[in-house]
């Protein structure tokens, strides 16, 4: 089976890394003709790739890749089954978003969770709803190095009497770390649990200063540790 994977991601995140984990094969890459995915040159290029390599399935991994495929298919009738993976939902969807999510040329919509399926279903018609399926993200344990390389208690001098709660997320808006800090506030300050240390592992960004200030404002300096990227 040939799968043509299309992604409009401009950075390398967990979704992209997971795709590489899933395919222990040599992968042929096609670079878009224009910097922005949704340009007519790229629509023509996709048609040529489909005609030459004849993929059995097109997998769409980002919202703009869905837009890209929808317009390309309307222009050129690609005649290839397309599967769209939906990882999360924004607070609102535009009229154009609703059109592409309901596009008849999408064969299946894979939702990462029941919550995503529920929220996406609010803007889907009956036919599109019947195309949705939930497949939770996972990777094989065989590819992971399960040998510890860092002793958190030793590194951060945490007494054995403390429980450790971990969170792994880079400091980006999508990870909603203020909610984590509010949870720590609830557990430590309101429920008076003083036997827990929270360790947040993730790459520092321009949002880090704001997060650390929130920790300070809530008096949680001794309860939560920001490790930066490990």
Give an overview of the whole structure.
With 230 residues, this protein is an alpha/beta fold. It has 9 helices and 8 strands. The protein folds into 2 domains: 3-134, Rossmann fold (3-Layer(aba) Sandwich); 148-228, Rossmann fold. It has helices at 14-22, 40-53, 63-76, 95-101, 114-121, 126-129, 152-155, 177-190, 208-217, and strands at 3-6, 57-60, 81-86, 106-111, 132-134, 163-168, 196-201, 224-228. The strands form 2 sheets. It has a 5-stranded parallel β-sheet. A 3-stranded parallel β-sheet has the order 6-7-8, with helices on one face. β7, α9 and β8 (224-228) form a beta-alpha-beta unit. α2 (40-53) crosses α3 (63-76). It starts with a strand and ends with a strand. 17% of the residues are buried. The model has no long low-confidence stretch (mean pLDDT 91).
Question: C-alpha Rg, in Å?
Answer: 22 Å
Total number of helices: 9
Give the ordered list of helices and strands.
EHHEHEHEHHEHEHEHE
Give the distance, in angstroms, between the N- and C-terminal Cα atoms.
37 Å
CATH fold type of the largest domain:
Rossmann fold
| Amount of beta strand | 15-25%
- Please tell me the overall pLDDT: 91
- Please give the order of strands in the largest beta sheet: 1-2-3-4-5
Count of separate structural domains? 2
State the secondary-structure class: alpha/beta
The general outline is elongated
Named at the architecture level, the CATH assignment of the largest domain is 3-Layer(aba) Sandwich
Count the beta strands.
Answer: 8
């Amino acid at each position: 089976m040939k799968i043509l994977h299309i992604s409009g991601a401009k950075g390398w995140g967990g979704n992209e890394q997971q795709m590489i984990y899933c395919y222990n094969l040599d992968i042929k890459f096609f670079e878009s003709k224009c910097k922005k995915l949704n340009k007519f040159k790229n629509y023509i290029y996709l048609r040529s790739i489909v005609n030459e390599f004849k993929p059995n399935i097109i997998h769409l991994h980002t919202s703009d890749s869905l837009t890209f495929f929808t317009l390309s298919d309307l222009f050129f009738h690609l005649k290839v089954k397309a599967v769209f993976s939906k990882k999360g939902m924004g607070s609102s969807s535009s009229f154009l978003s609703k059109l592409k999510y309901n596009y008849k040329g999408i064969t299946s919509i894979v939702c990462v969770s029941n919550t995503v399926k529920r929220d996406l279903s609010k803007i889907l018609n009956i036919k599109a709803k019947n195309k949705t399926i939930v497949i939770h993200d996972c990777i094989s344990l065989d590819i992971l190095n399960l040998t510890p390389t860092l002793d958190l208690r030793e590194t951060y001098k945490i007494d054995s009497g403390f429980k450790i709660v971990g969170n792994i997320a880079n400091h980006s808006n999508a990870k909603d770390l203020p909610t984590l800090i509010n949870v720590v506030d609830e557990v430590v300050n309101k429920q008076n649990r003083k036997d827990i240390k929270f360790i947040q592992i993730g790459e520092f960004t321009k949002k880090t200063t704001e997060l650390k200030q929130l920790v300070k404002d809530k008096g949680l300096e001794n309860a939560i540790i920001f490790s930066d990227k490990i």
